Amino acid sequence: MIQHIETFLLDVPTIRPHKLSVATMNTQTLVLVRIRCADGVTGWGEATTIGGLNYGEESPDSIKVNIDTHIAPLMIGMDASQPARVMAKVRKTIQGNRFAKCALETALLDAQARRLNLPLSELLGGRVRDALPVAWTLASGDTAKDIAEAEHMLDIRRHRIFKLKIGLHSVDDDVAHVLAIKRALGSRASVRVDVNQAWTESEAVRGIAMLEDGGIDLVEQPVKARNIGALARLKRRFDVAIMADEALHGPEDAMALAHADAADVYAVKITQSGGLLPALEVATVARLAGIDLYGGTMLEGGIGTAATAHVCATFPALAWDTELFGPLLLTQEVLREPLVYRDFMLQVPTGPGLGVDIDTDKLHALRRK
Ligand code: MUC
Ligand code: MG
User: 195 CA to middle of ligand 1, Å?
Assistant: First the structure.
């Protein structure tokens, strides 16, 4: 039986300012959920987002208050060993709130997998890989600093895929920044960009032409999320891969984008999808429509990152790898044992459930009072 559901906001400074077109992050607010069950099993979930309300329509504060006030009371007393039945009730009763639903589903599945003594990936159908290549985002706002950071990541064999955040400056300035980094790294790295919806269609046509010429491998969400027509026209016009990110709010969007032939790649995010099982549905739609996959992040800490890793480990194909570096952007760890990054890959945890444990002393030290 589900006995107790608690939510926590943790404010964790980032290792450097992280500059996106929609926000500059100096801290990340982790939203964690703990579900305690009557059989003594505990499950954890995460609903972290980026930049308050700058990126999505749920903020850390709204996620917490909506879980505490509206969603948790529906779940208390239900059978914790039937996560699908609990989530069916939540999805039927609660509109929207994808991030909140994701955290709750993660916690239920973590608890259930611990109960069954299985890694979460096995409850989701079974893993086909034990490690995931991980991209790093260069977003210091300074070209020379970004190049030095990339060189360091290559030296320590942590990342050889770099995603550059653009869209804050003019198209010409942004392209010059990206191509300077690509020239410095050459064939030693895959360089990709994320525009976070900042370009108009005509800016995108101009910008992508130059990026494609300069050897950039992928362009993520160049135009507004709702402008599926523009995304489809860009996909048709260019050879460089076009990835949908903000346009993808779960399986229905995955279907609509597939019908519109609007993207070469989907960034699968558990939070944006509204949970782990909807994220698997997004991946299935992509597979059936011949769309490639990428494991995306909302810059979550260890819990959300581990949950996404278990999901991605089950994908039969993962052509564009992942960006599951969230914990590495934070100055402080909330897990008892940090996730293992080695040889450009994140190792998918092998213990029961998510395979990670929260350090409750660290949790209380970072917790917003
Ligand atoms: C996004 O839009 O993809 C992922 C990596 C990063 O630096 O920001 C996020 C959000
Ligand atoms: Mg993105």
Answer: 10
Backbone angles phi, psi at 80, to 5 degrees: -65, -20
Strand segments (E) across the chain: 2-19, 24-37, 42-46, 131-133, 136-138, 161-165, 190-194, 218-220, 241-244, 265-268, 292-295, 341-342, 345-347
Across 252-289, b (16+ Cβ under 10 Å) vs e yields: ebbeebbeeebbbbbbbbbbbbbbbbbbbbbbebbeee
- 165 assigned to active site: yes
Among the atoms of ligand 1, which is closest to the Cα of residue 139?
7
Sequence-distant (6+) residues with CB within 8 A of 325 are 134, 135, 136, 137, 159, 297, 341
Q: Which residue's CA lies nearest to atom 4 of ligand 1?
A: 297
pTM of the model: 0.98
Domains and CATH numbers, the chain: 2-117+359-366 (3.30.390.10), 123-347 (3.20.20.120)
The pocket around ligand 1, CB under 6 angstroms, is made up of 50, 137, 139, 194, 196, 245, 296-297, 299, 323
Ligand 1 centre distance from Cα of residue 81 (Å) = 34
Q: What is the pLDDT of residues 37-90, one digit of tens each?
A: 999 999 999 999 999 999 999 999 999 999 999 999 999 999 999 999 999 999
Active-site residue, from 165, 182, 235, 269: 165
The pLDDT tens digits for 158-206 are 999 999 999 999 999 999 999 999 999 999 999 999 999 999 999 999 9
